[in-house]
Amino acid sequence: MSLETLQRAPRWNTFPAMNQKTPLSEFLPYQLSITSNAVSGRIALEYRQRFGLSVPEWRVMAVLGDSGPLTQRELTSLTLMDKVAVNRACKELEERSLAYRAPNTQDGRSHLLELTDAGVRMRDEIMPLALEMERRLFAKFLPEEVAQFRSLLERVRGEVEDLDADDIDSGNFGVE
User: Is residue 11 scored above 60 in pLDDT?
Assistant: First the structure.
């Protein structure tokens, strides 16, 4: 299905409404979450077995490799991970000499985390593995489908940022 066809398709609000009796398995955020967990979990197994890295550690390394030095607050924002998970990942990377903290000259209250040479080498070793796993995961999809999927994920992400829960009428669902 082309993007043009999708854009002409009926909007979500014309679909049957979910209600208290709708099975969780039909709730799109749930489907998105379990799919993400399945994909991340499978890929994380490789990182853990080959490099001894957890998902949060790899995410921090990948973001630092793309962005350069960042504060933990910036890492939390970019990865959308809990600040405790980011803190733990940063500490572990430091203990393994894969990252180090440097003073933040722009803000004396924070530090910048940066990959060490060993961290850069490990990231550079992992990236081809990550890209090959992505290639295999989507090997049975047409290039247009992958592009469309990326586009839809970006749109969902944008909608999440714009979502105002105050405007949602939940029908109270038993809460008064």
Answer: no
